[in-house]
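[audit] Reproducing an earlier prediction to check determinism. Same input, same settings, fresh worker. If the tokens differ from the archived copy the diff job will pick it up downstream; this log only records the rerun itself.
[audit] input (396 residues):
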Amino acid sequence: MTGSSATLRSLVIYALVLPLALLLGWQLASPGSWTTWMFVALVAMVLATPLLLKWHRPMLFMAWNMTAVVFFLPGRPQLWFVMAFLSLLISIVQRAVLREMRFLHVPSLVLPLLFIALVVYLTGKFRGGFGLASFGGEMIGGRRYWTAFAGIAGFLAMVAQRIPPQKAMLYVGLFFLAPILNSVGNTIDFVAPSFYWIFWIFPVEFLPGQGPSMIARFYGLSLAGMGIYYYLLARHGVGGILGAKNLRRGLLLLGVLALTMSGGYRSFFLLMVMTFLLLFYFEGLLRSRYTVMLVLATIFAAAVIIPLATKLPLSIQRTLSVLPIEVDYRARESAQASSEWRLKMWETLLPEIPEYFWFGKGLAIEGRELVMVNEQAQGDSAAGAERAKLAADYHN
């Protein structure tokens, strides 16, 4: 009887697997088709279902700060976007099936998020809809509405269950260290063409010679450096890094700070310094010997960097241009131009605040209007500000 059951089970498996394998092989015969990619993705998702059911929350934490995209889906959404909705859906199904499954009760956070979701929905509903260019809509811009919904869904999925204390640092590591993979997009100059397929997943970021300033802006490397920086602070704290026995941690922290500065993003630099100082204060180190150490280290760093500032890479000089020190004129002009067009855009938007104070302007854009503004923006900084205004990209 047992042998008959095993034989029947094998026959059923073969009856399912063989036709599926033949269909998959036939689909792969035309690999350039989107239908093929959708079918392959569907098969892969079905096969990966057991893994998703068990590991969807760690996968969500890992994807949250990554720039990886799901290239075979319309609009190429980011991986975290897909995992947010998928993880929440799995958590809801598990809650319905398993009686011991309970969502964490955090009304002080959940209720404001649900209120924000309602505001976003009503704004989109009455301000042009949720049109998506990837689905052929005449009104576009709905992607950012869905990004807001995905952020809320991701938070709800993260708090679906309590993280065991023994796994806390694992989740912290997944959250902060996964952005190291973002640097893949900056390696295209060093990768053989046979491996270019990897850039379908990790988009190519700014490269040397791009943009009006012709300054290399390594966005992926900056995110990778920030991830390591925050992981060190989360794991060891400021006191655990500044201790005399932890010289390697301090050097590593300075190294990833320099790596982040290679992107030329002044806001990243300010955010990291502010985070460090706030942690320094909240850890109660203000009246300790570490204050003297920090002041002396700052004076020493200034004595080294200020005379050599103009010799540093232009991207780092652009980051340092936020400080009152001398840097190369190209880095200074690039930073000033960026600030000026922001101020110009905000000056233009200021009179519109009363009109949209109680009910937002919305994010929907007419496709034809966007095309017209893009054509005008070629090499024109004023038109570039107009394009950012139209897209609600206010850089606030």
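[audit] rerun output stored. Observation attached for the diff report: The mean pLDDT is 81.
[audit] end
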